[in-house]
Design a protein that fits this description.
It is a single chain. By secondary structure, this protein is mainly α. The protein has a domain at 9-162: Hypothetical protein af1432 (Orthogonal Bundle). The protein is 57% helix and 0% strand. The protein has helices at residues 3-9, 16-28, 31-50, 57-66, 82-95, 101-112, 125-139, 148-157, 163-173, 187-194, 203-208.
């Protein structure tokens, strides 16, 4: 990458909307989650550029800024998935800025689905990119396909200080009070690892316990 391209790839949007999103993230987030969120945006934006996707940088940035705010007490509900809490916070923020409803919905979906395997990549570019940026930063999916020089610059500017252990701790803390909300998600396994005796329900048991009786076997009558 040329120096100019590198510098461009490190730019975060500085519209009024983006600046306010950054301020909210800075005020309520931890240093670890702040750096993570900015890295996710920069990774995602570059992945979008590489794939020649047409996407709205500002919306992607707001989605990245808010994507983990549901882990923070101020934004956390007692009974919704943390991803939905972050999505709802972003919706509230965007609705005070007269953003069109379809754009608000795009950001909501990007955040709500950012931990869901297999679905976001088939959705709109902002939804797909937030997910791919998260996958790269958290577990290294696409590490070798990402320009190494830019990756090193991003990490130098937004360091991964004690990230692996620290992120797991802050991540789990965000939904430790509501482990039932993690059913059917990758986060159920996080709860099983850290909550002694906690076992997420098994779909087989839920199906077997359904209140419906099986029908008695009868031949089908076709008049």
């Amino acid at each position: 990458m040329t120096t100019r391209n590198l510098a461009q790839a490190l730019v975060i949007p500085d519209s009024l909307l983006a600046k306010e999103a950054t301020e909210i993230l800075r005020e309520h987030s931890t240093d670890l989650l702040f750096n993570h969120s900015i890295r996710v945006y920069l990774f995602a934006a570059e992945q979008g550029r590489q794939r020649n996707l047409r996407f709205d940088r500002e919306l992607l940035y707001v989605a990245a800024a808010f994507h983990d705010l549901g882990l923070i007490k101020k934004f956390s509900s007692p009974d919704e998935r943390f991803e939905v809490d972050g999505a709802n916070a972003a919706r509230q923020f965007l609705s005070t800025h007269n953003i069109a409803e379809d754009q608000v919905q795009t950001v909501w979906e990007a955040i709500a689905l950012h931990t869901t395997p297999g679905i976001p990549k088939h959705m709109g570019p902002e939804v797909a990119l937030l997910n791919s940026g998260v996958l790269l930063d958290v577990i290294g999916v696409g590490f070798d396909q990402f320009p190494a020089e830019l990756r090193e610059e991003i990490v130098a500017k937004y360091p991964r200080t004690n990230f692996k252990e620290g992120f797991i701790q802050e991540y789990f803390a965000g939904f430790a009070h509501k482990p039932a909300t993690t059913y059917g998600t990758v986060n159920a396994a996080v709860c099983e690892r850290f909550i002694p005796g906690f076992k997420s329900p098994n779909a087989c048991d839920l199906i077997a316990a359904s209140p419906f009786p099986d029908s008695q076997h009868k031949a089908h009558h076709h008049d």
